[in-house]
Write a structure and sequence with these properties.
The complex is a heterodimer of chains A (125) and B (464). Chain A is mostly helical and 125 residues long. Chain A contains four helices and two strands. Helix content of chain A is 61%, strand content 5%. Chain A: Keywords: Membrane, Transmembrane, Transmembrane helix.
């Protein structure tokens, strides 16, 4: 098998590739954070009565909250800010499909490239 | 880390010195990871309650034991710089190697971001000055550490060893200072973790907590980054990695026990510095200050190691032409991968200024879990392509393929855990890796020298 000689990349080409990587990082990862689309999906289950008892805190817990500088009013939004684990099946299926599709593509495309590597490496000998 | 980049007359060629022993391997792994005890693990309590945080501590410990076993075998055989990146190049192929390097870069860069946020918030909380924000401290941490890495004035592993030891000892001191053998005097576990609140979300909360359970140990696999610098990889890597795991398991158990016995789970689940809070709640100024300093030291040691590791992985991508070769330049005077360091600096800053601690940690965890999924499949392929006896292995892990199967199953559970509460971040991150992989496979790969990707003196793999 003839040895593959890759093209030399121009400086402009290198700059373009760097820009592509930066754009991909910021569009896919940074933008969802900036737009508030990422992060913990929690919401506050508000209570009318803001007492340690209503917040489910026994005297030991209440004393620690107070030691940390909280009152029932200020601790309310922390204690009542909860996850609500309802499985959204369509989203779960999309997530699973994306993940599986990603790994299948990764291993299949890698294998094609790997055959190039092995052929060139061992056919040289 | 004592990674030395030496340009030769042929150009930018990396030359690494074999100077490290098992203690350095331990310091390399634990130094990056120990910050996880000072922040992050406690978000598992937020997702599932205090007891869930303990359950995942042990189950995820099993995941990492599998990682350590698998990694020790592959790395002691593929004793090349780059760790999992070099493994992927030799066992799976260039596209996988490209992704694995990106997993490393983002796991470490987001860990660095988390460290900087922790450091900034801890200082702001300690100062207690109205209107003081963490931004200047975050910027200073990231820029100064990047500058140190640029100059090559790295904290060596010996220094990291000392810092890590101080941070670890502070946890041990805290543990024994609160009379862990007695309840009621300082610790009040049975009053804070009750049958009614131990698992506030039930068992689905335990599964959800897997996400942050990863944070107890994330980065221990970084020990393999030093494969080419270790005097005896076959001995040092398994010993150092396993010793690191044992160290972390003990630290994680002590940390959970003290913190869960000192603060309600709702507070434990949202605080950025649980161990420092634990020090405060003991009422001892000495312990409070000790844990404050230890939190800063752990964050600094981790961030410094992360900058070095992330830049090194990015540098490797440039050197192999997976990314523009511009990144592969070595500084003529300081012998550091300075362009990679400078390129990753604004990215770290950009995320540090807009991300919450748990968002930054989630990005890091996601990259880590993607990498562990790769590792579980990688070891199966490794044994298939080069069966036992066909090549010399530095270490052969027992019970194959059980650790790989356990690892894969726990990764699937962790993906589901991330979906519970952080699903949009998971999809964003996988979409990023998918898109960048398409770009690599259909465009960038043409610049890669095929045969140069395989450098080990092994026979042709079976099936090719």
């Amino acid at each position: 098998m003839s040895r593959y000689t890759p093209p030399e990349q121009s400086k402009t080409g290198q700059i373009f590739d760097i820009v592509v990587v930066v754009v991909a990082i910021f569009v896919a990862l940074w933008l969802p954070l900036k737009l508030g689309l990422a992060g913990a999906a929690k919401s506050i289950d508000a209570l009318d009565a803001k007492t340690w008892e209503a917040l489910g805190q026994n005297p030991t817990m209440a004393s620690i909250w107070e030691k940390l500088g909280y009152t029932p009013e200020t601790a309310h939004d922390i204690i009542q800010n909860r996850f609500h684990y309802v499985i959204d099946w369509p989203t779960l299926i999309i997530m699973a499909a994306v993940l599986i599709g990603y790994f299948v593509f990764l291993f299949r495309a890698s294998d094609r490239e790997y055959r190039d590597v092995i052929n060139e490496k061992f056919d040289d000998k | 880390m004592t990674i030395t980049l030496e340009p030769t007359i042929h150009g930018d060629r990396v030359s690494l010195l074999r100077v490290l022993g098992p203690a350095h391997v331990w310091a390399l792994g634990v130094g990056i990871v120990l910050v996880g005890e000072f922040t992050g693990w406690n978000f598992a309590a937020d997702k599932g309650g205090a007891l869930a945080a303990l359950i995942v501590c042990w189950i995820v410990g099993l995941l990492y034991t599998s990682v350590a076993m698998i990694d020790s075998e592959v790395t002691s055989t593929v004793a090349a710089a780059g760790g999992q990146y070099a493994q992927a190049k030799h066992i799976v192929g260039p596209l996988m190697a490209f992704n694995v390097a990106l997993f490393l870069v983002f796991a470490y860069t987001m860990l660095e971001v988390s460290d900087a946020i922790l450091l900034g918030d801890t200082i702001v909380a300690k100062a207690g000055v109205e209107g003081l924000t963490h931004n200047s401290f975050i910027a200073a941490t990231i820029v100064v550490l990047a500058w140190l890495n640029y100059r090559g004035v790295l904290m060596t592993l010996n220094v990291n060893f000392v810092i890590t030891a101080i941070a670890y000892i502070s946890i041990v001191i805290l543990f024994f200072s609160v009379s862990p053998w007695t309840q009621g005097a300082v610790l009040k576990l049975n009053e804070l973790v009750t049958p009614g609140n131990a698992l506030p979300y039930g068992w689905i909360g335990v599964i959800a907590a897997f996400q942050f359970g990863i944070w107890y140990y994330l980065g221990i696999e970084g020990t393999t980054q030093a494969a080419e610098e270790v005097r005896s990889p076959a001995r040092s890597l398994p010993y150092g990695t396993m010793a690191g795991m044992i160290t972390l398991l003990i630290a994680a158990a002590m940390t959970w026990y003290v913190c869960a016995s000192l603060m309600p789970w709702e507070y434990l689940g949202i605080t950025y510095y649980p161990l420092w809070d634990a020090g405060k709640l003991t009422g001892s100024p000495l312990l409070e200050n000790l844990l404050f300093v230890a939190t800063l030291l752990a964050a600094l040691a981790s961030a410094n190691g992360c900058i070095n590791d992330a830049a090194r992985a990015w540098f490797s991508l440039g050197r192999d032409r997976y990314l523009p070769s511009w990144f592969s330049a070595v500084h003529p005077k300081y012998r550091t991968p300075y362009r990679s360091i400078l390129f990753l600096l604004p990215i770290a800053l950009a995320f540090a200024f807009i991300a919450d601690l748990n968002q930054a940690i989630t990005f890091s965890i996601l990259s880590g879990v993607l990498q562990y999924t790769f590792m579980s499949i990688n070891i199966i392929m490794f044994r298939k392509k080069w069966p036992l006896g066909s090549i010399r292995r530095g270490y052969t892990h027992p019970f194959h393929p059980l650790p790989a199967i356990v690892l894969f199953c726990l990764c699937v559970v962790t993906f589901f855990a991330i979906f519970l509460g952080f699903g949009s971040q998971l999809i964003a991150m996988v979409a990023f890796y998918f898109l960048i992989s398409l770009w690599f496979h259909f465009y960038r790969y043409k610049f890669v020298r095929r045969g140069d990707q395989f450098t080990m003196p092994w026979p042709k793999p079976q099936g090719y």
